[in-house]
Write the structure tokens for this entry.
Amino acid sequence: MQLPEQWHIIEKECSPSTNTELKALAEQGAAEGTVLIAHRQTAGRGRLGRSFFSPPNTGLYLSVLLRPQCKAEEGTRITTVAAVAAAKAAEQVCGTKVQIKWVNDLYRAGKKVCGILTEGQPIPNENRLAYAVCGVGFNLCPPKEGFPPEIAPIAGSLTDTFDPTLPMPLALTFLEEFRKDLALPFSEILEEYRSRSLLTGKTVFSPTDSFSGDATVLGIDEEGGLRIALSDGTEQILRGGEVSVRIRE
């Protein structure tokens, strides 16, 4: 998968949702490589219909328009590539180590610091994507009033205090890493993804009922799926859904 040499960057102080806005632009014929960057969102969205907390002076929110020549089912690879690119960008710009929690989150010190949402638009009656929009939301620092109670136990940030000089270097570094990684064989991306895996070896359960009981994470398969061993010893590969680490008392 290749991207144009030049990004077309649209920067806004506020967006309802960078993914929603960029999808509308895609429907109007916006070129591949169009990027929408916002410094806060009023209706940010995450996976599984969740909202994404996006207040001012705490984060960076951006979406990238792709027009990939790939099968619809291969669109999930975009999230894998974006996770690796986001991890590398965070480490380079913020100087902190992060891990990837399958399938689309970055964690620092046990807390979520970045979420990724990729949305594809299939071509009717064809097994191809007309376009895909990949959105990435970074928590740069904690909000002054703290995270809302419903996410406070898991929400974290890449830094401890807001630095207004960080957002754009982080955005541009992510875009450069994303461009380079999209051009690489997917097997190379998987090695980077696996080396940062938060879940490998952990005991997990599924809040979305992808499986019952507890399971042990064995690793990431060749398509980016999560390999798990169920309590009865059988193995399963998850292509979607969600898992949470089981905290033992």
